[in-house]
Design a protein that fits this description.
Blueprint lengths: L1 E10 L3 E6 L1 H6 L7 E10 L4 E7 L4 H13 L15 H11 L2 E7 L2 E2 L5 E11 L3 E11 L4
Length: about 140
Amino acid sequence: MNLWFQEAISLTPHPRGFHLITAEVIEHLSDLGKIQIGMLNVFIQHTSAGLTINENADPDVRVDLETAANLICPESMPFIHTCEGPDDMPAHVKASFFGSSVTIPIAGGRLALGTWQGIYLCEHRNRGGRRNLIATYHGTGAKGA
């Protein structure tokens, strides 16, 4: 049986930086256990924040990702689009680099992330506010599901 589900997720506001949101996403996937083989796509509905998958164990990774992103696209660049503040255009550029969605396989009713992998919210604004995600997941259900 082919199953499709979709959930709207409103994340709590986070400060600028990289934030593990794996548990918060899974918490909203109420039908995840019904899928034996499938895929999850998580899409962020914003242009100044992104999503990525990276190491979830060492918190230094989050700091290093933020440092690298700021070196790649510093606020001191001579941007033209500055009407929303100096962190706005760099946030758009960084969001394009990281991307607006992640896709993760589902196996046996669980996300098939690697041992050290987690889903990150890449918040590129100093005060980005509440971020909205759309999680669409589908696949083959277990017998009787």
